Amino acid sequence: MIELQRLNKWYGEFHVLRDIDLTVRKGERIVICGPSGSGKSTMIRCINHLEEHQAGDVIVNGITMTRDVKRVEQIRRHVGMVFQHFNLFPHLSVLDNCCLSPVWVKKTPRKKAVDTAMMYLERVKIADQAHKYPGQLSGGQQQRVAIARSLCMHPDVMLFDEPTSALDPEMIKEVLDVMIELAEEGMTMLCVTHEMGFARTVADRVIFMDEGQIIEENDPETFFNHPRSPRTRAFLGQIL
Ligand code: ADP
Ligand code: MG
C-alpha cells in the first residue's frame, strides 16, 4: 500500500530524512516513535505530499508521487490524515467539516455526503454534536470529528501524527478507543504516537526513528522487551 524507497529530504542544508526504506502492506498497523525532531512528522507528511522529498521514491497504491498536481490529488484520495491539532475548519459545523471534501473533491451529492458523515459521526459516538462548531467541543471530541471527517473520504490508509499529544489525559482514551476500533476493522494505519499501550495492543510493527533514520523495526513484543539499539533502549527508558 505504501512504499518509501531510499527517501531523502533536506530543509535547506539540514538533512532531515536519510535513506528511509519502509513498506506498509494492506491491513498493517505500524506505530512510529522516536525523539522530538527525529523526522517522524516529516516522513509521514511526505506520503501525501504535505512535504516534498528530494531523493528516493514515495509509492502509494502503486502510484509514484511526483510534483504533478493530478498525481498528488490521485494519491491523496487514498490517504487520510489526522493531525495533532485536529485542523478542523472553525467556521464550519461538525457536519459540514465532514461533508466538505466529499462534496467538493469527490462531487458526492450533498444528501449522500450527509448520510455518510452521520454514519461515521455515529461510529465515533458524536452524532449528537453534528450541528455544533469545533470551538464548542472538547479536544477529544474534536479529534474524533477529525477522524470521522477523514473516514468520509473512504481512505485506504490512515496516517496519524501524534493524535493524542494535544489532549488532556482524560480524553486520550476516547480517541485511542476509536483508533483501536478502526484497527480491528482492518484499516491500514501508520501512527506516530508515544502511546505505548496502543502500540502493544494494536501494532504489527513498531518503528523507532532518530536523526532522520529508521534505527529499529520489530514486532511490539520484541521491540519493547528486547530493543537492539542503545538509542532505542535510552528512548524507551525515558518514556516508559
Ligand atoms: P518529529 O515529528 O519527529 O518531532 P519533525 O519531522 O517535525 O520531527 O522535524 C524534524 C526536524 O526538521 C526538526 O529538527 C525540525 O526542527 C526540522 N523541521 C521541521 N519542519 C521544518 C521546516 N519547515 N523548515 C526547517 N526545518 C524543519
Ligand atoms: Mg512531529
UniProtKB/TrEMBL annotation:
<dbReference type="GO" id="GO:0005886">
    <property type="term" value="C:plasma membrane"/>
</dbReference>
<dbReference type="GO" id="GO:0005524">
    <property type="term" value="F:ATP binding"/>
</dbReference>
<keyword id="KW-0547">Nucleotide-binding</keyword>
<keyword id="KW-0029">Amino-acid transport</keyword>
<dbReference type="InterPro" id="IPR027417">
    <property type="entry name" value="P-loop_NTPase"/>
</dbReference>
<dbReference type="InterPro" id="IPR050086">
    <property type="entry name" value="MetN_ABC_transporter-like"/>
</dbReference>
<dbReference type="Pfam" id="PF00005">
    <property type="entry name" value="ABC_tran"/>
</dbReference>
<dbReference type="InterPro" id="IPR017871">
    <property type="entry name" value="ABC_transporter-like_CS"/>
</dbReference>
<dbReference type="InterPro" id="IPR030679">
    <property type="entry name" value="ABC_ATPase_HisP-typ"/>
</dbReference>
<keyword id="KW-0067">ATP-binding</keyword>
<dbReference type="GO" id="GO:0016887">
    <property type="term" value="F:ATP hydrolysis activity"/>
</dbReference>
<protein>
    <submittedName>
        <fullName>Amino acid ABC transporter ATP-binding protein</fullName>
    </submittedName>
</protein>
<comment type="similarity">
    <text>Belongs to the ABC transporter superfamily.</text>
</comment>
<keyword id="KW-0813">Transport</keyword>
<dbReference type="InterPro" id="IPR003593">
    <property type="entry name" value="AAA+_ATPase"/>
</dbReference>
<feature type="domain" description="ABC transporter">
    <location>
        <begin position="2"/>
        <end position="236"/>
    </location>
</feature>
<dbReference type="InterPro" id="IPR003439">
    <property type="entry name" value="ABC_transporter-like_ATP-bd"/>
</dbReference>
<dbReference type="GO" id="GO:0015424">
    <property type="term" value="F:ABC-type amino acid transporter activity"/>
</dbReference>
